[in-house]
């Protein structure tokens, strides 16, 4: 079984950034406005806290616990387009997937990848897209569905 000590500081930072990148990839696909972003962020935060208590492998438990103790939401560079943000987030998820394949057990790799995909799904389902003042709209927009497909394919799921 793997733990934080099996990863360099840079590798651990990469793992720590992955759930937020999975979420950001979905957010950038279909921005929900200020209230929607708060709802999406809160849903992901709640999921990370739950994961710290329910993770099956020590690696995911340690990662989620670490995130509950100190989580920073990265700010995109000024003027970055949603497509550029999605591309950067996708690259981080790809690097995370590769790192897990190299250093984690197959069980840990599968659990962390599923967790990342669930993080993206939770983000997509946190608020309705479209509609007006909470009426109408859809739970997951077509753009978010495409972003979820990107997350899953990038992680090899």
Characterization of the model:
With 157 residues, this protein is an all-alpha fold. The chain is built from 6 helices and no strands. The protein has helices spanning 9-29, 33-54, 58-69, 82-103, 106-125, 142-154.
- Taking all Cα atoms into account, the compactness measure Rg is 15 Å
Oligomer: single chain
What is the structural class?
A: mainly alpha
Q: What is the overall silhouette?
A: globular
**Average residue-wise pLDDT:** 89
The strand count comes to 0
Order of helices and strands: HHHHHH
What count of structural domains? 1
Describe the secondary structure blueprint for this structure.
Blueprint: H1 9-29, H2 33-54, H3 58-69, H4 82-103, H5 106-125, H6 142-154
Concise summary:
The chain is mostly helical.
Offer a few descriptive terms.
single chain, mainly alpha, 6 helices, 0% strand
